Amino acid sequence: MSDRPAPDLPRGVPHTLLFATDLSARCDRAFDRAVALAEGWRAELFAVHALQASHAAAGADLPSWRRGPDPVQRAADRLHQDQFDASWPVSIVVAEGAPVEVILETAKARGADLIVTAISRDNGLERLLLGSTVDRLLKEATVPVLIVRQRPRMPYRRIVVATDVSEASRRALHRAVDFFPDQPLRVFHAYSAPHSALAVDPVTYRDAYGKAIAADLDAFLAASGLGATRIREVLVERGDPSVLIPDYLHTTEADLLVMGTSRKGRLLDLLVGSTARSVLEGVSCDALIVPDVEEVAAA
Fold first, then answer.
1. The domain defined by 154-299 carries CATH number 3.40.50.620
2. Which DSSP helix (H) or strand (E) runs through 218?
3. What would the pLDDT profile of 51-60 be if each residue is shown by its tens digit?
């Protein structure tokens, strides 16, 4: 039986980080952030690379003198070179298999509290893409996933938690508190007033609906047990989250967005549907995605 705390309980900062890399240059920022976080948290750090079976078997049928270096060892050597001057120890893991399976299996085997990864870049369109590996990680991971975009010049200081007052949002809020205990948080809630166009007085309806949403958020935050010292600002805005969230993050120069996922909550569609790309590809800062562990694990 595991001695790790239940998902609902405060767990403090992560003790084990897993940095997932495909050995491309796009992962450099994610590696630097993983090292900085591990050093700040005094956490164990693993760098994992998945070697596709076809690559691992390359040259196996050739005579011994025609074979190149062992692919697994070559990848491990590359990882060692990349982290040679890292300011914090990094343990190397290279395994054969599909990337998502290797990442998740390694995270479970090593007891990782956080997976750190990068994003893909479509050079032709000059835009950032989540990529199929990150998409699947967001759906299947049972620990938070940090998607790194920015160069880590300093620790996270301007952290925004996007909420819809769901259980998934509560988990995300508490993970933000656990991971960054010294940083005050900004809480942002974007909502839409359904069927307002059908109301006799749409303006009055939207005003009343907004007040009800604000009251729900106040109750949500009060139930969280977080004092005013932990929450710097609370915003409730009517509109499309995929528009409002990126704009708010850009305007306030936020460096980290925290969101929760749930198979039952509205944020599931936000994170794995078309709106997901509008939000997560629309923001320029890093994003910490917190899963509903019990629901994901039971799937």
1. yes
2. helix 202-224
3. 876 554 455 5
